[in-house]
Design a protein that fits this description.
The chain is rod-shaped and about 60 Å long. The chain contains one helix and no strands. By secondary structure, the protein is mainly alpha-helical.
Length: about 55
């Protein structure tokens, strides 16, 4: 009985890790897209230089 429980626990851990890694990849992709959009649409400051879009 114990080996079956250990195998099921290992499968559950590996499934959870795989799901978490897949979610982290999607989050990283979303952050990359936001960063690229911010890089492309940043405006100019009053002094004529290129400012950062995320600074107030």
């Amino acid at each position: 009985m114990v080996p079956i429980l250990l195998v099921l626990l290992l499968a559950l851990i590996l499934f959870g890790a795989g799901f978490a890694l897949k979610v982290l990849w999607w989050i990283a992709l979303a952050v990359l897209v936001v960063w690229l959009l911010g890089f492309l649409v940043r405006g100019t400051s009053a002094a004529g230089g290129r400012g950062r879009w995320y600074k107030c």
